[in-house]
Amino acid sequence: MTDLILALDVKSGTDACCIAGAASDYLDAIKIGYPLVLSEGIGISKRLSEFGLPMIADFKVADIPNTSALIAEEVFTHGFSAIICHGFVGDDSVLACVNMAHEYGGECYVVAEMSHPGATRFFHGGVAEEIAGLVRETGADGIIAPATRPERTRILRSLIGDKKILSPGVGAQGGDIGMLAGIVDGIIVGRAIYQAPNPLKAAEKYSNELKIHDGDSA
After folding, report:
1. CB 151: neighbour CB atoms within 10 A?
2. Other beta carbons within 10 Å of 124
3. 31 is known as an active-site residue
4. What are the per-10-residue average pLDDT scores of the chain (218 residues)?
5. 63, CA 20 to 30 Å: which among 7, 34, 93, 218?
6. pTM (2 d.p.)
């Protein structure tokens, strides 16, 4: 089954908890990044953990190995289940995140290609493929690949075997769940849920859509 992951990119801890609480029955994980953590502090993870969902730290870590390891350690000591890092910094920096994640029983995902239009300037035409190879070399758990360019995600799937793919870009960015059926392990949805008048109904809609397409691809 394909997971539904909420990208909770709000800045208010109160709003974050209200949205997560409302939608939690239809979610498989919550991804939080800099907007919420810079506003509320990394301790917001304790409040969100009350909903019983795995939490992914989307910090897109891109630093030297020692600093990357320190960031990852903070992430996992605060209860996160996974961390996202960049691959363009090289194998040693990725490996620092991977090793720290695995030391804590967590996962590390590497950004292979991003979902916004400008990403094609650098994360395209060979670079993403190199990063996919790096994921296999370092033992990372998977990649981030775009729902907005499913043809690219299919290519990356062919390169990483049974590693996981989490795919952002469904909803506000226009990605189509149906185009990713059977290719990815998790769909990341942000604004289409957290900015919806009724986040519960929005999450239910995407959850049901995933179930339909999972059935079609079985």
Report:
1. 8
2. 14
3. no
4. 96 97 98 97 96 98 98 98 96 98 98 78 80 94 93 93 94 84 94 97 96 75
5. 7
6. 0.94
